[in-house]
Amino acid sequence: MYEVDATCRYLQHIDYFKRESSPQSRCRYNYKLCEVTPNSVYHTLHRLNRATRNKPSPKEGAPQQRASMAEEVILLDTWVSPFGMRARIALAEKGIKHEHREEDLGNKSDTLLKMNPIHKTIPVLIHNGKPVCESNNIVQYLDEVWHDKSPLLPSDPYLKAQARFWADFVDRKVFDAGRKVWVTKGEEQKSLMEEFIGHLKTLEAELGDEPYFGGEKMGYVDVTMVPIYSWFHAYEVSGNFSFESHCPKLVAWAERCMQHHSVSKALPDPEKVYQYVLQLRKRLGIE
Ligand SMILES: N[C@@H](CCC(=O)N[C@@H](CS)C(=O)NCC(=O)O)C(=O)O
User: Fold this and answer.
1) Do 131 and 124 form a contact (C-beta atoms < 8 A)?
2) Are 128 and 71 in contact (CB under 8 A)?
3) How far, in Å, from the CA of 58 to the mean position of ligand 1?
4) Who wins on pLDDT, 44 or 174?
5) Can you give the pLDDT at residue 175?
6) 106 near 117, Cβ under 8 Å?
7) Ranges of each domain in the chain
8) CATH for 157-283?
């Protein structure tokens, strides 16, 4: 313990004397003052480093430092999931190399159960062995750690709060109403569909004349919302209507997002989604 204390004192002194003297005299002076030798400093730091390597504290290292180290990034995902698509878009926007693992949600992997024991849902991002769960949380995490490339959230606190508000609206209102449409039929389904379209119109009004929810550039709300566009075809065929006639601006916005390789690569073929929905409704005994 003495060695550790002495080494800490030595490191503090280096800092203090940095401005005071030449590098040589600084070292000699500090070693002497702190009763350490170059050898003991080296060995103590080496030991401390080894002891903490497997136990990183949450405060350790600034995010940008971590992003520049060798990274292991894994995404547990399922192709049809709009939540998974959010993570895929953010990873692609930021050009983050990662391993993509497709989960069978009918037979969840041990890794998924271990990494997301609370909800047991995908997506899960595993960054250097540590899990990050919940899609919007993942997008925010990626944006913070890899903040240098394609920032998604605004840095201004007020604009950031607004972006989070709308992303929450997408989750709570749009995605929720959209999901309920698939597990109902008849009149109930019709009224849920109207509710769903109502929420889309609210979003359309929020978009206004901007090209993206993020303003001139695609941002957090765009990444949160655009995945559901891959399900529009399924809604249209099932409900025999057109989104274009109800919310043309929103459809134009989605098409604009699709021009981004990150989005077109992350979203699956709409016809494949429709076939998946049909199967799902059959399995649930709705069709
Ligand atoms: N709020 C979660 C929702 C994730 C979610 O519902 N994922 C679905 C796939 S779309 C899932 O893993 N379902 C498996 C289950 O519920 O057992 C998020 O944003 O990540």
Assistant:
1) yes
2) yes
3) 26
4) 174
5) 95
6) no
7) 2-55, 64-145, 157-283
8) 1.20.1050.10
| pLDDT at residue 2 in the model | 46
Q: Identify which of 29, 130, 35, 124 has the alpha carbon closest to the alpha carbon of residue 86.
A: 124
Mutating to test ligand 1, I would choose from 107, 121, 172, 183 the residue with most ligand atoms within 8 A of its C-beta, which is: 121
At residue 170, the pLDDT reads 98
Share of the chain above pLDDT 70, in %: 76
Please tell me if the CB atom of residue 231 comes closer than 6 angstroms to any atom of ligand 1.
Answer: no
CATH number, domain 64-145: 3.40.30.10
> Ligand 1 in contact with 135 (CB < 6 A)?
yes
- pTM score of the predicted model: 0.79
Question: Are 235 and 193 in contact, with CB atoms under 8 Å apart?
Answer: yes
pLDDT band at 15 (very low <50, low <70, confident <90, very high): very low
SS3 per residue for the chain:
CHHHHHHHHHHHHHHHHCCCCCHHHHHHHHHHHCCCCHHHHHHHHHHHHHHHHCCCCCCCCCHHHHHHCCCCEEEEECCCCHHHHHHHHHHHHCCCCCEEEECCCCCCCHHHHHHCCCCCCCCEEEECCEEEECHHHHHHHHHHHCCCCCCCCCCCHHHHHHHHHHHHHHHHHHHHHHHHHHCCCHHHHHHHHHHHHHHHHHHHHHHCCCCECCECCCCHHHHHHHHHHHHHHHHHHHHCCCHHHHCHHHHHHHHHHHCCHHHHHHCCCHHHHHHHHHHHHHHCCCC
* Cis ω before 82 (30° cut-off from 0): no
